[in-house]
Amino acid sequence: MLELVVSIENSELEDKRISIIKKNLEDQASLKYIEDDILSSLFNSTVNEILKNDILIEKLQNSKNVVREINSRVEESKVA
Fold this sequence. Notes:
This protein has 80 residues and is an all-alpha fold.
């Protein structure tokens, strides 16, 4: 009921809420893909290969950046 009133009273706010929810779902899917990719790379490597695997190291660095961006968006969505 409240959702209906909000959507009628302020459709812009409702559109923003829906956009945030969609983005959060996309971010969750991205995190799951990154996690699976990294775990697969780790599982298929030996300890020595992990330390020398530039592609894996780059994946880990990129994943840190993506996680920071996602966490930032999540925090912003809590304020909005």
